[in-house]
Amino acid sequence: QPTTLAHHYGAYFEMFKRDRLRMKDIYERMNYCPLGAGALAGTTYPLDREMTAELMDFYGPTPNSMDGVSDRDYLIEFLSALATIQMHLSRFSEEVIIWNSNEYGFVEIDDAYSTGSSIMPQKKNPDIAELVRGKTGRVYGALNSLLTTMKGIPLAYNKDMQEDKELSFDAMDTVLNCIVLFDGMLATMTFNKMTMAQSAKNGFTNATDAADYLVGKGVPFRDAHGIIGKLVLYCIEKGIAIDNMSLDELKAISPAFDEYIFDAISMETCVNKRLTIGAPGHEVMLKEIAASKDFLASFK
Known about the structure:
The chain is mainly alpha-helical and 300 residues long. 62% of the residues lie in helices and 4% in strands. It contains 13 helices and six strands. Helix 1 runs parallel beside helix 13 (282-297), helix 4 (73-100) runs antiparallel to helix 5 (127-150) and helix 8 crosses helix 9.
């Protein structure tokens, strides 16, 4: 079915919004101070753990000293969140790569975020999108590595745990760099709107709306479904789209069609009459964009 670029972008916005909320949620659990836990059983020195935690802007001290020195859940959660962010970036990158291909021709990636082919002079490689997609495995590896390290470790601290540092710092840097570069690529990427609009007409994306139109004329949906099936087969045989059919051709398949069908199955109508929450209709999208801006402002 036809949709809009704003609606498509909005889907990724929801993913990244959950990522942002997930990071905030993790911070709420990880912001507790282990200082004073000692080797595992606390300390005999008169240390005020609540005061030291407050001085360093923690919410408070970790409540169990043994858990305080042997826990890596906070990093596992954090790496899991980073892996999810990277997965979302990778999915978006895959679409950019496809859209950049000659077969689609939907986007033009700025030269700063792409390079020419070493052998094909006509080719522009979507470097950043491919690298972001490739780096995802690296971040997944960090999460799996720490999970594997921790799976058989008894309480309390063990030297195995020092393996958490290198891979965690690397994952943090990798995701941060990917976000920065991906953001720059999106900001400079241009869209071939005419090509995208023409592509939306391929594949009979308005067939469901044609069926809905017949239902509005009193045709039972089961019958409307069959009529549109015949109509699509006719178009395939003729090598045309539904929009290209004449009214006489449409009426030959079903007398329920009239001259208003052409407006009913236009791409604009198909999109804009979808006005439920989350749909791509223009009025709904304006509200969604406004709500998204409010969400972004709340984190500044």
